[in-house]
Amino acid sequence: MIQYWAEGHFEAARQLNDSVWHGYGFMVQGQTELCHGVAPLQELLDRACGVLHGRLLNDVLQKPTDEALLHWFLEYREESQWSQLSITTGLERGMVWSASRQVLGWRGYRFEAAHQLPHVPAGHPCGRMHGHGFSVRVFGVYYSEWFAEIDRIWGELVRQLDRTCLNEIPGLEIPTSEYLSQWIWRMLVSKGISVTEVMVQETMSSGASYSGIDCSIWKELTADSALMEWPDGPLMGHTYRLRTVLTG
User: Fold this and answer.
1) Distant-in-sequence, close-in-space partners of 135: CB < 8 Å, separation ≥ 6
2) Which of 42, 46, 47 shows the shortest CA–CA distance to 5?
3) Exposure class string for 92-108: b at 16+ Cβ within 10 A, else e
4) Distance of CA 169 to the CA centre of its chain
5) Which residue range forms the structural domain that includes residue 62?
6) Residue 80 has what pLDDT?
7) Are the beta carbons of 11 and 26 closer than 8 angstroms?
8) Same domain, 127 and 165
9) 8 Å CB contact between 200 and 209
C-alpha cells in the first residue's frame, strides 16, 4: 500500500482562555492513500493553510485549541480522506488524528547521556563509551490535562536519565534505543498516564519506538541525484530520503 504524504505551514495568532495573545509557526502533515500523486494533496494542504495564514485564529474558531485546529483541517474538504493528519504547535508539541478516529497528543523532550553497547562486533564504534543528545517523543490518548500531566511525570523521570551513564541505571544494562524506548514506556505507564507510543532517537538518521506491544527500529539514508521529469525536459535535482523500518 502506497501512502502519499504532504506538509503545509502557516503563521497565526490566538488567545486561549485568559492568556495573552500569542503566535506560532504551525505545521500540518497529512497522509492518504486516496490520492493521484503528491501534487493534489500538497495543493489541498496549501489552500487550507492559506485560509489561516496571517490570521487571528479566534476569528475563525471560537476556541482555537490544538484539537479544534486539527478538526478544522479534517473538515476543510469532505473529499479529503485522510489516513493520518497531524498538527505541530511550537517545536515539541502536537496532535495526531488517525483513520481509527483516535486523537493523540504528543510531546517531545531531550536529555544528554553517555552509554556503551555490549555485544557489538569488535571494533564497532558503539562498543566504546560515548554519548548522545537523545530525543524522545511520547504519544498518548488526548484528554484536557494530558499535556500538563506528561510534563510533570517527565520532569521527574528525566532526573534519572539526564547527565548520567545509562548502563548504570537498573534495567538499562543494554542501553540501545529500542531498550530505552521500552524502559521509558514502562516508567511512564507505571505513573498512570496514557501512553500509546514512545519514540527515541540517538541521531538524526536512526531511532526506535515501542507501543507496549511492538518495537520498531528505523534507519534513514539519503541520495542526492539529478533527473528529467519528462523526455527533453529541463534537468532538476532532489535529495531523496529512504527510511527502512524493522518491526518485531
Assistant:
1) 108, 109, 110, 200, 201, 207
2) 42
3) ebbbbbeeeeebbbbbb
4) 26
5) 1-101
6) 58
7) yes
8) yes
9) yes
Are 121 and 213 in a shared domain? yes
What are the grid coordinates assigned to 2, written together? 502506497
Can you tell me the distance from the alpha carbon of 146 to that of 167, in angstroms, rounded to the nearest whole number?
A: 31
The whole-number pLDDT of residue 232 equals 83
Would you give the DSSP letter of residue 20? P
**Integer Rg of the chain from CA:** 21
Is 153 part of a structural domain of the chain?
yes
* pLDDT for residue 18: 77
Claim to verify: residue 136 and residue 184 sit in the same structural domain: yes
Distances (CA, A) of 50 to 131, 139, 180, 181, 215: 43, 28, 40, 37, 38
Instruction: For residues 2 and 97, state if they share a domain.
Output: yes
Same domain for 177 and 112: yes
What was the pLDDT predicted at 145? Answer: 93
Average pLDDT by stretches of 10, the chain with 248 residues: 86 89 92 75 92 96 94 79 87 88 94 89 78 95 94 97 96 93 97 96 92 93 88 87 87
Decide if 229 is inside a domain.
Answer: no
Residue 198 φ/ψ, nearest 5 degrees: -125, 125
Total tally of structural domains belonging to the chain: 2
